[in-house]
């Protein structure tokens, strides 16, 4: 199904369809194009319903779209983490929906169709009025990524011990090498270097389009050897490392969604429902920080463009922060107490 069939509203807006065709021709990932099409189509539907011409829409009219997203009933019910009301889309989803709308207006500005982008961008500056271009339409909430505690992590590992060797290896590699879901599922047999216990993450499979070589542990190497022997019984051909063993797709490359379903099933069985395919990456990078790795080294390992991105992944536990606070406060308290007792020590205390 093409985008016009999935989102008929795009056919009614020539400029929108043109913009999406350009992104498609430039080779953007299909999932990215689909996300852009969905966000822009939802915006155009609101424009049609409210009688707004999207080509000349104002910032106030785009705010109607934001209000629609913020108040829209969720398919998951009212227990949704949202900006304030407990209903509507989560903040991260709101940001995702606005990205294609902002990029669409960037395109119109570049084409000379309009003079400014009504969505705006930038960081919030206290005291600036609503129309100031330095303030975004929706404030961005930056949340710390969730990572499991020791007990939760061991619960999950116990549950995974009962899984087939393929699933155990995938979890081990995801943690050892801090792999994103697509990077993990896209691994090929020729990406492996067992002699040096490293694997190559190809640029085309990464979020930042930056290739890298990362290590994995000796224990994971044992799992890899066992899985390669198992895989030979499914297919001896070189190609995708992880293969499906279901009746319908036997021998086909394992899909992203299949791996997500595996992780979700095991997470629920282990009573750790917050665990996802990305949690292993968060945990690995946080553990590297706890071991004293420098920020730049962690950013290189993770494949981030800048250390600023790495900071959102690295957060120390409350226990770590408490230990740091205690160490610093002990020194501070000792310094203050020494000042109070110095007067008595030199005999100049109160009479």
From TrEMBL:
Keywords from the named record: DNA recombination, DNA-binding, Plasmid
InterPro entries reported in the protein's UniProt record: CB, DNA_brk_join_enz, Integrase-like_cat_sf, Integrase_catalytic, Integrase_recombinase_N, Tyrosine_recombinase_XerCD
The keyword Transmembrane appears for this protein: no
Chain ranges of the Core-binding (CB) domain: 14-109
Domain of life: Bacteria
Domain Tyr recombinase: 142-326
PANTHER family: PHAGE INTEGRASE-RELATED, TYROSINE RECOMBINASE XERC
Listed name of the protein: Site-specific integrase
Native species: Rhodococcus pseudokoreensis
């Amino acid at each position: 199904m093409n985008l016009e069939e999935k989102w008929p509203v795009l056919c009614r807006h020539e400029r929108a369809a043109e913009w999406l065709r350009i992104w498609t021709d430039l080779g953007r990932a299909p999932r990215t194009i689909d996300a852009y099409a969905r966000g822009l189509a939802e915006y155009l539907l609101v424009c049609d319903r409210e009688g707004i011409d999207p080509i000349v829409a104002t910032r106030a009219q785009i705010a109607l779209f934001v209000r629609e997203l913020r108040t829209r009933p969720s398919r998951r019910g009212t227990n949704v983490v949202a900006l304030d009301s407990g209903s509507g889309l989560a903040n991260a989803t709101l940001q995702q929906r606005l990205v294609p709308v902002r990029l669409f207006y960037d395109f119109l500005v570049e084409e000379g169709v309009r003079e400014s982008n009504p969505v705006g961008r930038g960081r919030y500056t206290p005291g600036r009025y609503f129309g100031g271009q330095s303030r975004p339409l929706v404030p961005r909430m930056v949340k710390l990524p969730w990572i499991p505690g020791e007990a939760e992590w061991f619960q999950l590992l116990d549950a995974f011990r009962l899984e087939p060797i393929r699933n155990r290896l995938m979890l081990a590699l995801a943690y050892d090498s801090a792999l994103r879901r697509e990077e993990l599922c896209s691994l090929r047999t020729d990406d492996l270097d067992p002699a040096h216990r490293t694997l190559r993450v190809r640029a085309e499979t990464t979020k930042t389009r930056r290739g890298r070589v990362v290590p994995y542990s000796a224990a994971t190497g044992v799992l890899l050897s066992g899985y390669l022997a198992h895989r030979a019984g499914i297919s001896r051909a070189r190609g995708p490392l992880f293969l499906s063993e279901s009746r319908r797709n036997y021998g086909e490359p394992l899909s992203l969604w299949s791996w997500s379903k595996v992780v979700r099933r095991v997470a629920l069985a282990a009573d750790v429902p917050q665990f996802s395919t990305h949690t292993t990456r968060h945990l690995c990078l946080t553990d590297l920080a706890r071991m004293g790795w420098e920020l730049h080294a962690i950013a290189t390992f993770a494949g981030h463009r800048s250390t600023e991105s790495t900071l959102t992944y690295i957060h120390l536990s409350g226990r770590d922060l408490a230990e740091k606070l205690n160490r610093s406060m002990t020194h501070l308290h000792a310094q203050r107490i020494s000042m109070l007792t110095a007067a008595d020590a030199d005999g100049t205390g109160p009479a």
